[in-house]
Design goal:
By secondary structure, the chain is of the alpha/beta class. 36% of the residues lie in helices and 20% in strands.
Amino acid sequence: MSNIGILGAGRVGANLAGKLSAAGHHVTLGSRSPEETAARTIGPAPHLAFADQRTTARTADIVINATPGDSSLDRLTDLRTELAGKILIDVSNATRDTEDGLPGDLCYPGSSLAEKLQAALPDTRVVKTLNTMLFMVMTAPDTLDTPATAYLSGDDQNAKTTVTDLLGDLGWKPERIEDLGDITTARATEAMILVVPHILRRRGFQPFAVSLAR
């Protein structure tokens, strides 16, 4: 079992923390106010601890970035020392929101948050995944009528293998995990977020994923 730190205690981070801790991993949920985060966490969560984000990054072997994508680069660059030698799983999308709070434009057109993080954190192995779906599908892919796809992007193959194993603990079958290649391929999956607001406005907040049909 892995020692996993999750940066960001919103719906994405809390959802991942609950499923990974239930799978037997030791999970630390990192936030700016760990006591408040612990107080509002509902339901049984074995192997789950709470800490500030710097402590979370320092004590974990694998770190998940679930912070808001438009501020992730600054936040994680400040944790360069703590993240050195770690695997960083980036599940965020860096977007500028429209007036209704839904994604409108990419923060890094022609690039991606994952690429920016890898450049800023050269001693960290960044893997992009789970950023092409609503948060509830990340931990329950079989709830959709159509099989969902989890894409992988990253420069380090061993890191991607480790992440693939973790995806298995979240319910992802190997045949539904698509390795796209190096970290530059993350710009493709991050751009997929631009379809999301149009779907949500037409159909409401229902679980879905941008998937590959074969």
